[in-house]
Design a protein that fits this description.
This protein is an alpha+beta fold. It is built from 22 helices and 10 strands. It has 4 domains: 136 residues, no CATH class; 100 residues, 2-Layer Sandwich (Phosphorylase Kinase, domain 1); 191 residues, no CATH class; 74 residues. Belongs to the protein kinase superfamily. ADCK protein kinase family.
């Protein structure tokens, strides 16, 4: 009961802060559940009048509410179907910046993590250079065995951040459950699933060992790439609350003038940003999901360097196939195939018409071919696509939320480097290569091989299952010899069960044998 009251009080405070800054009045009233009109009218009454832009007022409100709301705002930036297009545009400008915490607190965290003084861990630890909702970054130096020093980036977890997020997430879940209980649209949008995705993402970010592992995995996946890399992890100086990596000497992608002065080819950098993201998402199913300009550098060799892997996205083969075929369908204007992919993936209920859905997709896709390349937004197109799917009862897919969020950011970064960037021409080689590799003859052969291997593993397990059944029978026989008396009814039941078991075992063996034969001779 106390938890419920606390959640509602925190939500009421958040509502007041957002209403005061005019955030609630920017939500499309059509998106609000029935009966919320009085609340909407009251929010307009208490709205503070001022000359500041709506985006600036939104940023002020979110910062006042704390780091949990910064993360939530960044998520909702990709969901105009939830908050409306006007508010979504303002949320796109929201940056994860917070005041730094004191140097002595950071040093205390480092000493506690490694159980030794900071001066032993690092030869030097500078003041914080950047602070976000989860952690802040310092520049440090470490001593090498030969007496030299090397620069490192030291990321330190913000104190008490786990407790704060736990409290705020409880409030978010309360609001999401209420939204699903009171509104069919809330159930379709799967508000609780959205909070689930946010909670998992934040939990991963708050253990810096997991970020180190993500950096290591991304480095392994991209070791053959000549235009992309990530910093090397210093595992000896990494723990749950502290992450140490190599220091990157490079130019941030938001410093356009410095990139130009250094002689970098900006359109080429934009191409690398877009293609790297798509390649990692499609080829590996593992991608950097926080690719804003502050996390991307160009090093002196001209390579794109991504830092801060606290938020990573994963896609299964089903989701990767869905993404590739959707993008390729738009590239080739194959609206029927694009619609079929939604049904094959189970995203649109089968009782709807594929042809009707293809018509709705055509209504989104055809207009883009009458526009210049710089007027076409792939990220916005996906957003429109998800809006149209509401007409066909397509529920929110949590596994696609991070993908959509990242695509919005990546496209913005690429376009800032080259306003004339043709997103379709840039994406086509990566998407086509993946489709040829995975949906062509080679991919089909691999599918059959995987199926045969799975059947083989099942056959390998059969002897153990049979042996286990024999052991159970022997134990039962021993128990009865020791004097365990069973009634006639019980023994009859055991006999019938054993008979059924033998029949089902026989049937299972025949099915497995038939599948194996079919796979080998198809």
């Amino acid at each position: 009961m106390a938890t419920s009251i606390g959640d509602f009080l925190r939500l009421a405070r958040a509502g007041f802060v957002l209403a005061r800054e005019g955030v609630i009045s920017r939500i499309d009233p059509a998106l609000l559940p029935p009966g919320s009109e009085p609340v909407f009218a009251m929010a307009k009454l208490i709205e503070r009048r001022g000359a500041a832009s709506s985006a600036a007022r939104l940023g002020a409100a979110i910062s006042r509410l704390g780091p949990s709301y910064v993360k939530l705002g960044q998520f909702l930036a990709t969901r105009p179907d939830v908050v409306g297009p006007k508010l979504a545009r303002d949320l796109e400008t929201l940056q994860d910046r917070m005041p730094p915490f004191p140097q002595e607190v950071a040093e205390e965290t480092i000493s506690r993590t490694f159980d030794q003084p900071v001066s032993t861990v690092y030869a030097r630890l500078g003041p914080p250079l950047a602070a976000a909702s989860i952690a802040q970054v310092h520049q440090g130096e470490v001593s090498e065995p030969d007496g030299s020093t090397r620069r490192v980036a030291v990321k330190v977890l913000r104190p008490d951040v786990q407790r704060r997020f736990r409290i705020d997430l409880s409030s978010f879940y309360r609001a999401a459950r209420l939204g699903e209980q009171t509104s069919p649209e809330g159930r379709r949008l799967r508000l609780v699933a959205i909070v689930d995705t946010l909670a998992r993402s934040v939990a991963m970010e708050m253990d810096l060992r997991l970020e180190a592992a993500a950096l290591s995995e991304l480095a392994q996946n991209t070791e053959a790439e000549t235009d992309f890399r990530v910093p090397t992890v210093d595992w000896d100086r990494t723990g749950r609350e502290v992450l140490t990596t190599e220091w990157i000497d490079g130019i941030k992608l938001n410093d356009i003038e410095a990139l130009r002065a250094a002689g970098h080819d900006l359109p080429e950098v934009g191409r690398v940003v877009m293609q790297s993201f798509l390649r990692h998402a499609l080829r590996d199913g593992f991608f950097h999901a926080d690719m804003h300009p502050g996390n991307l550098f160009v090093d002196p060799q001209g390579r794109l360097v991504a830092v801060d892997c606290g938020i990573m996205g994963r896609l299964g083969l089903k989701e990767r196939r869905f993404l590739a075929e959707i993008l390729y369908g738009f590239i080739t204007r194959n609206w029927k195939r694009t619609a079929e992919v939604h049904f094959e993936a189970g995203y649109v209920p089968a009782h709807h018409s594929v042809d009707d859905f293809a018509q709705a997709i055509r209504a989104i896709g055809e207009p883009i071919y009458s526009r210049r390349a710089d007027q076409i937004s792939m990220a916005k197109l996906l957003t429109l696509l998800f809006e149209v799917t509401a007409l066909f009862d397509m529920k929110t897919r949590p596994e696609l939320l991070l993908l959509q969020k990242t695509m919005v950011v990546v496209e913005g970064v690429a376009r800032s480097l080259d306003p004339q960037l043709d997103m379709w021409k840039t994406s086509e080689p990566v998407v086509r290569t993946w489709i040829e590799r995975n949906l062509g003859p080679v991919g089909r052969i691999e599918e059959v091989t995987t199926g045969v291997a799975a059947i083989g593993r099942s056959l390998q397990a059969l002897p153990e299952l049979i042996a286990q059944g024999q052991r159970i029978a022997e134990q039962l026989d021993a128990a009865t010899r020791s004097g365990l008396a069973l009634s006639a009814e019980t023994t009859d039941a055991i006999g019938r069960a054993e008979g059924r078991g033998n029949r089902w075992m026989t049937i299972a063996l025949w099915v497995i044998a038939a599948l194996l034969a079919f796979s080998m001779f198809r």
